[in-house]
Amino acid sequence: MRARLAAPAVAVAMAAVFFGAPNASAATLPSTNTSHHCSHHTTGLCGWTHHQKPRDRYETAKCTDASVSYSQHSQGTCSHHHGVRYWFK
């Protein structure tokens, strides 16, 4: 009985090795904001700490004038909108 159950278990384990998810590299990581923490910046507050959520997963900051930013880098974010109010990255 054990011999009959062992063979399918080994087959399932081997299939998981061959068909498992590939290791994530920088090229395969999503370009969307999926983190729930803020990096340290000189301006603005962490949106997650202040119970603020982004409108969608691409939003990285909310400006002081209530406009949103999708900037990939923190430098210059909301510079024409009176600065950053909340960060989401």
TrEMBL record:
InterPro entries hit by this protein: DUF3761 (IPR022236)
Signal peptide region: 1-26
Statement: the UniProt record of this protein carries the keyword Signal: yes
Keywords (A to Z) from UniProt: Signal
Identification of the protein by name: DUF3761 domain-containing protein
Species the sequence originates in: Streptomyces tropicalis
